[in-house]
Amino acid sequence: MIRFIHCVKRKEGVSTEEFRRFWNSPEFNGLIDEMLGHVLTAGIRKNLTLDIEFNKTLQAERDAKQSFDGVLEIVWQAGGDLAALLANDEFQRLTRTMEELQRPFVDFRESRRFFTEYEDAPL
Length: 123
Prior knowledge:
Layout: E1 2-8, H1 16-23, H2 26-38, E2 43-48, H3 53-61, E3 70-76, H4 79-86, H5 89-102, E4 112-117
Antiparallel strand pairs: 1-3, 1-4, 2-3
Helix pairs in contact: 2-5
């Protein structure tokens, strides 16, 4: 499987509550539903970072920056699916729409995006 992972950092000045409202908004969820219906994915997952003291402790232990606020993950069964998707005009439109929807809330410079290969191995 191929995974696209977007670790999202909220913009300075955007509160955790504002970011969470955006992340759970009908507009954002509707766009994700549209992506599922049009982009040949095996799945999309959204996660919010828990706002708990233990996460702050983990950061402090390694003098790390503040955690990402959310993680968006899109999964494809095979690399060929991804290649077809990248050439798809509808996918390009949805990607631009997603970026514009995120712009008021997401610090793109501090966020991270990357592809991974997922190997299904027993734990």
